[in-house]
Design a protein that fits this description.
By secondary structure, the protein is α/β, with parallel strands linked by helices. The protein has 2 domains: 3-94 and 218-269, Rossmann fold (3-Layer(aba) Sandwich), CATH 3.40.50.1860; 97-216, Rossmann fold (3-Layer(aba) Sandwich). It has 12 helices and 12 strands. It has helices at 13-22, 44-59, 71-76, 78-84, 96-104, 128-133, 135-141, 157-163, 166-183, 201-208, 217-231, 250-261, and strands spanning 3-7, 28-32, 65-68, 91-93, 115-116, 121-126, 144-145, 148-153, 189-192, 213-215, 243-246, 268-269. Strands 4-3-1-2-11-12 form a 6-stranded parallel β-sheet, sandwiched between helices. The chain has a 4-stranded parallel β-sheet with strand order 8-6-9-10, sandwiched between helices. Strands 5-7 form a two-stranded parallel ribbon. The longest helix has 18 residues, at 166-183. The relative contact order is 0.20.
Length: 270
């Protein structure tokens, strides 16, 4: 009954932590593609191929349902995977869905016409590849009207987090927020469109100011997954053991993960 969680590196651990807290009896198999991180600077074809390989590895662990805890993979690869690649007995879900549900205050299955929502000015912080895909804006436009989205590609932030350099990561966040505020001086809400970013969420909030509501994905994804599994219990795979896998150096990745999450995590080679 395991569920897989895939990410380009360490960021998806924020989602795993929230899912484990919400569904403590659910075995989770995490795969970080640390050998190829970051995805945010890769082209769409490369991201698609790497993501498919990662998902297949999680299927081998008994995970019929895989969460792409990587916004770049969700933006650049998920739609194509679902339309052209995915077997009928498997499911791959992205992390945009719960965020847009929260922002528009409507369920994903609600296919009524787009309508006015309370928040009109939204700042989106994401990797360059996610910003270039315009996937968030496209999905939002299906559900809401009159929302102005200003997207800021946050180059370097994922790299700094993966290197364990919190000071650099926070400095880069401040710089990217300042760049966005020059174009949108008064955002009402901010979307952290990368699962690495909750690790530096305090830096985003400080740079944006207390008046801006910051939407972070892990808790939203966890709640959405709990609802999905309640409606689709058949998607629980036959895996029974929680594991942490990486395509990178297991010892080094374990050290970085432990440093950022502040509790021991032991990765194995995928």
């Amino acid at each position: 009954m395991a569920v897989g969680i895939f990410d380009s590196g360490l960021g998806g651990l924020t989602v795993l932590g929230a899912v484990a807290a919400r569904l403590p009896q659910l075995p989770l198999v995490y795969l970080g593609d640390n050998a190829h991180t970051p995805y945010g600077v890769r082209d769409a074809e490369d991201i698609f191929n790497l993501t498919c390989a990662g998902v297949e590895r999680l299927w081998a662990e008994g995970c019929d349902l895989v969460i792409l805890a990587c916004n770049t993979a969700s933006a650049a690869a998920l739609k194509r995977m679902q339309e052209t690649w995915l077997p009928q007995d498997k499911r791959v879900l992205g992390v945009f869905v719960p965020m847009i549900e929260a922002l528009t205050e409507r369920r994903w299955g609600d296919n009524s016409p787009p309508r006015e929502v309370a928040v009109k000015h939204v700042a989106l912080f994401a990797t360059p590849a996610t910003v270039a895909s315009r996937a968030f804006q496209r999905e939002l436009a299906f559900r809401a009207i009159g929302v102005d989205v200003e997207a800021q590609p946050c180059g370097g932030v994922v790299d700094a987090i993966e290197m364990g350099d919190e000071i650099l990561a926070e400095a880069l966040v401040t710089s990217h927020v300042e760049a966005l505020l020059r174009r949108m001086p008064h955002p009402e809400a901010a979307i952290l469109g990368c699962t690495h970013y909750p690790l530096v969420q305090a830096a985003f909030q400080k740079a944006l100011g207390p008046q801006v509501k910051v939407y972070s994905q892990p808790d939203l994804v966890a709640e959405s997954l709990a609802d999905y599994l309640n409606r689709h219990p058949e998607m629980l795979g036959d895996g029974t053991v929680s594991r942490f896998l990486t395509t990178g150096d297991a010892e080094r990745v374990s050290g970085k993960a432990t440093q950022f999450l502040r509790h021991p995590i032991r990765f194995e080679s995928a």
